[in-house]
């Protein structure tokens, strides 16, 4: 299996204050079709349901982030794709001969686009579970249409939400990747803020969601955690203790149902 360390794409949850929505391209329906395909595959593969909850798909300029896409929960949930995607053809598989168009293709190949949509749908699924079980819980601002956690270095909310989203992304790609071993958490104290939440988050949530995704996400949104300081960094072994509690929580819900 591939290691989680190969994850290099940037995603985010919420919309930063400088996000500018732009007019959707003429082939917008093809992007909607791609989103529908990804959602159906995730439902089939993970044995989950999005419950017919619609999610909008729009294009935007992210002035202050490296994100390729963002999910924003609200009255009308929406996935925002980076404005660069307006030049894409979601169905184009063979790279074009033109050099400029070929560079665009490398950015937005169908595989890359669907992988990003799968990640954002992981955020969407978390919002669905939160509305049902913990609308006023520790991650409730997830549902309020705000700029959420993008620039918070080691936010526990960011680690939890991105961990679930990466799980969905990897599940869509083909196979779930091996998480970092427990010893890795003990060695880790600091890292680039945009990367850390993906590595730590996925390694934390995978053993929980492997038991049951619905109940696993429920346990996470119902139970908060914090990351204590350690010297100039953080003690990420606290996440191992949280993970064990969430594993027991997930098993308990599973037994009741």
How are the secondary structure elements laid out?
Layout: E1 12-13, E2 20-22, H1 28-46, E3 56-61, E4 69-72, E5 78-82, H2 99-107, H3 110-133, H4 156-173, H5 182-187, H6 193-209, H7 213-222, E6 229-230, E7 233-234, H8 237-256
Parallel strand pairs: 1-4, 3-5
Antiparallel strand pairs: 2-3, 4-5, 6-7
What descriptors fit this protein?
five-stranded mixed β-sheet, single chain, globular, two-stranded antiparallel ribbon, alpha/beta, 8 helices, 257 residues, 7 strands, 48% helix
In summary, what is this structure?
With 257 residues, this protein is an alpha/beta fold.
Description:
The protein has one domain. With 257 residues, the protein is α/β, with parallel strands linked by helices. It contains eight helices and seven strands. The strands form two sheets. Strands 1-4-5-3-2 form a five-stranded mixed sheet. Strands 6-7 form a two-stranded antiparallel sheet.
Structurally, the number of domains stands at 1
Tell me the distance between the termini. Answer: 32 Å
* Sheet with the most strands, sense and barrel status: 5 strands, mixed
How do the strands line up in the largest sheet? Answer: 1-4-5-3-2
Q: Output the helix-strand order.
A: EEHEEEHHHHHHEEH
* Helix content class: 40-55%
Strand content: 5-15%
The Rg value, from CA coordinates, equals 18 Å
Structural class of the helices, strands and pairings? alpha/beta
